Amino acid sequence: MVLKECVRGLKELRPLTHLLLPLCFHWIAEAMTVSVLVDVVTSALCPGQTTCTEAIYISGLQQTVVGIFKMVVLPLLGQLADEYGRKPLLLITVSTSIFPFAVLAWNQSRESVYVYYVLRTISFIISQGSIFCIAVAYVADIIEEGNRAAAFSWITGFFSASHVLGNLLARFLPEKYIFVVSIVLLIFGPLYMHFLLAETVERVPKMDRDSTFLTKITNVAHKRYESMRDAAAIVFKSPTLRGISFVLFFYELGMSGISSVLLFYLKAVFGFNKNQYSEILSMVGIGAIFSQILVLPLLNPLVGEGWILSLALLASIAYGLLYGLAWASWVPYLSASFGAIYILVKPATYAVISKGSSSMNQGKTQGFVAGVKSIASLLSPLAMSPLTSWFLSSAAPFDCKGFSIIVASVSMMIALCFACLLKPDEKLSHDPEDEIEAPLLRES
User: Fold this and answer.
1) How many other β-carbons are positioned within 10 Å of the β-carbon of residue 195?
2) What is the largest CA-CA distance in the chain?
3) Do the Cβ atoms of 313 and 356 come closer than 8 Å?
4) What number is the average pLDDT over the span 156-178?
5) What is the pLDDT of residue 223?
6) In this structure, which of 25, 232, 308, 373 has its CB flanked by the most CB atoms within 10 Å?
7) Can you give the residue ranges of the Major facilitator superfamily (MFS) profile domain (predicted)?
8) Higher pLDDT residue, 286 or 207?
9) Distance separating alpha carbons of residues 429 and 248, to the nearest angstrom
10) C-alpha dihedral over 394, 397, 399, 403, to 10 degrees?
């Protein structure tokens, strides 16, 4: 039974080979830098110290700035992907990570770290979240609705597998080679896409070639506004899309807050370095591969996306609470084991959103909901950075170094409450334009 589902899932993924292969190389390249970045940044900004308040605040500021711009950029990229095609937008988004890591490969001084943060912030604004949104829209163009949940789970499974490989490379490669290897892989991705990835959206011919430059700018701005207003109307008129927006807002508020401070927290409390980070991240990734590629495709037809989403949110709460209350160095490893379950939040929500929107609005809807998530990601550091720094310092009002992570877990409890009220099977009314804008690639 399991083998049969795996073979069936692989057959569904055959048309997506030229999408998944370059994305896997991109994810491997990004993952292998995560565990070493904390050591590099801390050494540059706070030499000889294990706790670096400046690094925590800069990371929080970066996340806030990214969140502010992503509120506009994510829906915009989703709309552009619907209008101009998935391929050009994927090429742009996957290329932005090359430049910040090139700076650290060249030099790791304090000044270079500041330059890295500026370039990485720009990169995150363009690529963070948008790569997944556009990739999901690409999948929706090709895969039939009934098979999308399994396809999304395989994609997020490959994402986790890529992170495991990236973390293993980081664990065993000397630190001086990590950024160089990462850059090579990051360059390979867009080159592969450029030559081999097929487009799935037919571009509408331009009718305003003789318009003046000012008229074109005005028309583009008006069109973007109308399209974003339409996306908002689609989401808020649908109980399912409206509900999943609340779920993702509170989930992202908690999880992005935890992610922004977690590695600094572990370094300050338990003295972890890149080796421990790699072990924990690899542990999460291996469990996530199993749950997304094997468990979700088997469970989804039996219980549905809503039940899986609630289970994943419950696991994310346990994940946060264990980290926040960690009393020994082995507890973070126990907490990381829940990553195998909470990782299912992503494919479950992609499936709910995809079912709740028409085929011509996939990129627009995914982009708008991702924009809602970005609002949460910009708000969380405003509380998490100062709260984490305060409770890691000697001025803390009581001894609970992970108090900020416990607070973030409360936000995920609220997300679980909204998830329990969801009815994922509700759909939008049939859109006659679906028949007009059929994807170019569709399996018979």
Assistant:
1) 8
2) 69
3) no
4) 84
5) 66
6) 308
7) 19-427
8) 286
9) 23
10) -110
Query: What is the DSSP secondary structure assignment for residue 197, as one 8-state letter?
Result: P
206: helix, coil or strand? Answer: coil
d(CA 28, CA 190): 14
Alpha helix (H) ranges present in 202-360?
Answer: 213-237, 239-270, 274-290, 296-324, 331-337, 339-342, 345-356
pLDDT on residue 440: 35
- Fold entry, domain 1-198: Growth Hormone; Chain: A; (1.20.1250)
Residue 272's H or E segment, with its range, is none
The model carries a pTM of 0.69
CATH number of 230-423: 1.20.1250.20
Highest mean pLDDT among 205-214, 297-306, 341-350: 341-350
- Extract the tokens encoding 331: 């507890």
When mean pLDDT is compared across 172-181, 215-224, 314-323, the lowest value belongs to 215-224
| Domain boundaries along the sequence of the chain | 1-198, 230-423
Residue type, 58: I
Task: Specify whether the backbone of 18 is left (phi greater than 0), alpha (psi in -120 to 50) or beta.
Answer: alpha
Q: What is the pLDDT of residue 116?
A: 94
Q: How far apart are CA 139 and CA 148, in angstroms?
A: 8
